[in-house]
């Protein structure tokens, strides 16, 4: 299967899931997660009309960002390290993984507006980044005090489950928390579970393998 036909297939699935949830498919942004994928495949996706791309490592993303057209919207979806947050804020339009005070302070130093999502560790998995639901209110207050970091919403990575249906409760919980802090965006859903995430209110789905195939 080619990237362009995979993209068509994913977009069709987004449309079907949106229709079933009585949602407008245009309200859902498809982020093509291109981490580890070669530039040729990213260009193929671009030529098929894809404009939002997700990367999780600064070093890898840098050369890709330089070699792609200016109208690409780059989303940083990897774990944020404080010492790299300034550089990441200078290169990416959206950062999905704010979860520490240092992240805000360092990203601010880029002197460039960046759209921000707060990562919430809904399932409280010890190996995962993200704040706990109890910390959200306080952290959100800090984010909205920043001059350059513009709060847009919440992000979560659903716990790995055998059945996508089991993710539903976690996605529903992110939506509930989003309501408490006035989130416009909910970044949730990956290749294995984006349809369930759309039913639960996702506005940004992050899809890698269903578009590009397995990662190197
Ligand atoms: C890699 C990654 C994805 C994409 O995962 P797939 O299962 O390949 O669709 C989405 N979100 C995050 C945070 C990732 O690290």
Give an overview in words.
41% of the residues lie in helices and 18% in strands. It contains nine helices and eight strands. The chain has helices spanning 3-20, 39-47, 58-67, 82-91, 101-108, 136-144, 168-181, 194-199, 209-212, and strands spanning 29-33, 52-55, 73-76, 94-98, 114-119, 149-155, 185-187, 204-207. The model has no long low-confidence stretch (mean pLDDT 96). The structure holds pyridoxal-5'-phosphate (PLP). Pyridoxal-5'-phosphate binds at residues 33, 35, 56, 77, 157, 190-192, 206-210.
Helix content: 40-55%
Bound molecules: pyridoxal-5'-phosphate
Largest sheet: 8 strands, parallel
**What Rg, in angstroms, do the CA atoms define?**
16 Å
State the distance separating the first and last CA atoms: 17 Å
Query: Helix count?
Result: 9
Structural class: alpha/beta
The total of beta strands comes to 8
Give helix and strand order, one letter per element, not per position. Answer: HEHEHEHEHEHEHEHEH
The side-by-side strand order for the widest beta sheet comes to 7-6-5-4-3-2-1-8
| Strand percentage | 15-25%
Parts with pLDDT < 50 across at least 5 consecutive residues: none
How are the secondary structure elements laid out?
Elements: H1 3-20, E1 29-33, H2 39-47, E2 52-55, H3 58-67, E3 73-76, H4 82-91, E4 94-98, H5 101-108, E5 114-119, H6 136-144, E6 149-155, H7 168-181, E7 185-187, H8 194-199, E8 204-207, H9 209-212
Parallel strand pairs: 1-2, 1-8, 2-3, 3-4, 4-5, 5-6, 6-7
Helix pairs in contact: 4-5
The chain binds pyridoxal-5'-phosphate.
Pyridoxal-5'-phosphate binds next to strand 8 and helix 9.
